[in-house]
């Protein structure tokens, strides 16, 4: 297949490109400024901006892809508002470009922690938290906008990734979460998270080329409270023992269930525990 990959030089994208190429796919990788890196991975690089709707439409049309893959993020500066903008305006432009080019299938990156409060791990059928508090609402609205836009194509898969860890993420040595931990600013709370290693996120993206339409939680098998994972992470990055905060978790901080992904044949190869231990 011929695949147009937006976000080809990102933490997940730069793992997806060689995996696709190894399977015989022809990849056109969109990047803002890392053409040489994308070419070195085996793709044909195109330089563009997802906020330039006309330019993006031209690039996708010229690529003539069978599938568009969305691995776009804007998290380098830790700016959640910028990342929400990618999910709204960037996704809108990418979907419009795909529709204009006659593309039938899209695979897009989303997140697994945008669901409404509840007592156990969220499934793909758990509604999004559209009544979220203001400090969380921008993230949830961005996810809702992304997922609605993607579903406009005849065939679509939304990959609801757990919190990404591994090289190129906030959890790598020197990353944002490492800095917080080493400064003593990462408390161990009761909030529950689900994680996925970037390598496992990439294998899910490749597998999703053949998955049926719908959302799929892509995370490891062990949703964990901060009481459990934060001390392991701190030890892995050489940070001080974290401050423990007892009390009820936030209702939405419930983790995610990966049963659908497992039924589709995907399984995580690296748990958060193993990933943080070797950080």
List the helices and strands and how they pair.
Elements: E1 2-6, H1 13-22, E2 26-31, H2 35-40, E3 44-47, H3 53-63, E4 67-70, H4 80-100, E5 105-111, H5 134-150, E6 155-161, E7 163-165, H6 176-182, E8 192-193, E9 195-197, H7 198-207, E10 214-218, E11 224-225, H8 226-236, H9 259-263, H10 272-277
Parallel strand pairs: 1-2, 1-4, 2-3, 4-5, 5-6, 6-10, 7-9
Antiparallel strand pairs: 8-11
Helix pairs in contact: 1-7, 3-4, 4-5
Note the run of SSEs as H and E. Answer: EHEHEHEHEHEEHEEHEEHHH
Number of strands: 11
Which overall shape is indicated by the principal axes computed on the Cα atoms?
Answer: globular
Our count of helices gives 10
Radius of gyration: 18 Å
Strand order of the largest sheet: 3-2-1-4-5-6-10
Give a quick summary of the entry.
The chain is of the alpha/beta class.
Write a concise keyword list for the protein shown above:
two-stranded parallel sheet; seven-stranded parallel β-sheet; alpha/beta; globular; 279 residues; 11 strands
Descriptive notes:
This protein is α/β, with parallel strands linked by helices. It is built from 10 helices and 11 strands. It has a 7-stranded parallel beta sheet, with helices on both faces. It has a two-stranded parallel sheet with strand order 7-9. Helix 1 links the parallel strand 1 and strand 2 (26-31). The longest helix has 21 residues, at 80-100. The chain is globular.
């Amino acid at each position: 297949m011929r695949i147009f990959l937006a976000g080809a030089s990102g933490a997940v994208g730069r793992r997806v490109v060689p995996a696709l190429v190894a399977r015989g796919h022809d990849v056109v990788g969109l990047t803002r400024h890392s053409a040489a890196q994308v070419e070195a991975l085996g793709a044909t690089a195109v330089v563009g901006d997802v906020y330039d709707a006309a330019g993006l439409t031209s690039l996708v049309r010229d690529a003539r892809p069978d599938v568009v893959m969305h691995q776009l993020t804007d998290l380098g500066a830790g700016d959640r508002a910028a990342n929400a903008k990618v999910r709204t305006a960037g996704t809108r432009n990418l979907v419009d470009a795909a529709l204009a080019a006659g593309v039938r299938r899209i695979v897009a990156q989303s997140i697994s922690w945008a669901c409404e409060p509840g007592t156990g791990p969220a499934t793909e059928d758990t509604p999004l938290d559209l009544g979220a508090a203001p400090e969380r609402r921008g993230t949830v609205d961005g996810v809702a906008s992304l997922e609605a836009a993607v579903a406009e194509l005849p065939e679509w898969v939304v990959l609801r990734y757990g919190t990404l860890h591994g090289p190129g993420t906030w959890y790598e040595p020197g990353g944002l979460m490492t800095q917080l931990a080493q400064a003593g600013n990462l408390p161990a709370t009761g909030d529950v998270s689900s994680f996925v290693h970037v390598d496992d996120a990439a294998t899910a993206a490749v597998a999703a080329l053949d998955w049926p339409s719908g959302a799929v939680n892509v995370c490891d098998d062990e949703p964990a409270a901060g009481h459990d994972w934060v001390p392991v992470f701190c030890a892995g990055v050489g940070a001080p023992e974290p401050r423990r905060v007892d009390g009820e978790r936030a209702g939405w901080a419930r983790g995610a269930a990966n049963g659908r992904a497992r039924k589709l044949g995907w399984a995580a190869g690296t748990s958060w525990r193993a990933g943080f231990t070797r950080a």
